[in-house]
Amino acid sequence: MGAVARKQLPLRPAGPDTVDALLAWYDEERRDLPWRAKPGKRTNAYRVWLSEIMLQQTTVKAVIPFYLKFLARWPNITALAEAPLDDVLAAWAGLGYYSRARNLHQCAQVVVRDYAGKFPRTAAELQKLPGIGPYTAAAIAAIAFQEPATPVDGNIERVVARLFAVRQPLPAAKSELKRLAATLTPENRPGDFAQAMMDLGAGICTPRRPSCLVCPVQSDCAAAAQGIEEQLPLRGVRAERPLRVGFAFVALREDGCVLLRRRPDAGLLGGMLEVPSTEWIEMLPPPKQALRAAPLRADWWLVPGTVVHTFTHFRLELVVYRALVPSDASLTFWAEPDRCRWVPRRELSSSALPSVMRKVLAHGLKEQ
Ligand code: SF4
Fold first, then answer.
1. Is 52 noted as a catalytic residue in this protein?
2. Among residues 28, 29, 52, 279, which one is catalytic?
3. 216 to each of 82, 182, 201, how far by Cα in Å?
């Protein structure tokens, strides 16, 4: 029934009329998000930037409490630039992808130092700043500075693939989707257009069961006309995430402190704290060999079960050892004592620990 009705749609290719319809819909139905300026009010670039960095790989729902917390604590870019990195990382804990927090802090310092505290106004200039890639640069330039730039993320790729019925699978179709999205971006109100596309992708043109019947651009949508909207965008075969494994050592001192180590600045979870661990590799070495990598000599015992965590590019399984150690315990040199510190248990929740290490601590410190 649906297919017959759709074939009767007066289909026109997506173009300026589509944009007008979308903007009219946005004026009525836009989401009320804490970083969005109210209609007629000036957009604050700091808020747009902060929200866009937080929204990278994270949902709006998860971001809102973090955004509000950051804004209350660091209401402007100068305040954030002057904050100790550890405080920023600790406030970020739970949002994941910690290199974003490090880049956020570094970016704030660069903008204060090199741009007198004001963000550059074009996507090309914004992209030179730490942590700002093409999508984020286009989003900030369009929303905060009204540059007709076109941010294209997974949501907008989906909307565009459907509007134009693009049958080429992702990721090969990315550049074509970007090109098509740019053909729609208007000179007038590019920021509202970008946000309207975001809202459409989030609430109506959803990955499964898009709500075409209430969609403001249905009459211009090639996929809806052909009844193939649920099949798009097509995706190439995705490789399975490889598995990596390792050992983690939870050392609890008699005075209630836990041994933590700062990870190197570069690389995954750079600069965050961790429970001292072996390298994460493809095959577990024998336990005897693993124990030689323990950060101090102690009576280590194996905590039953494993800690499992999924990163973007691999799955990690950690085997956890635990030991109760005396207050004067000294670290082995391969524990890299300069990067280690003893942290009271009550301070663990406010420490710059990534989710995977919080799981390790919960597992390693649970009462047996
Ligand atoms: Fe998406 Fe359907 Fe709207 Fe097309 S008509 S843009 S498929 S919600």
1. yes
2. 52
3. 45, 19, 12
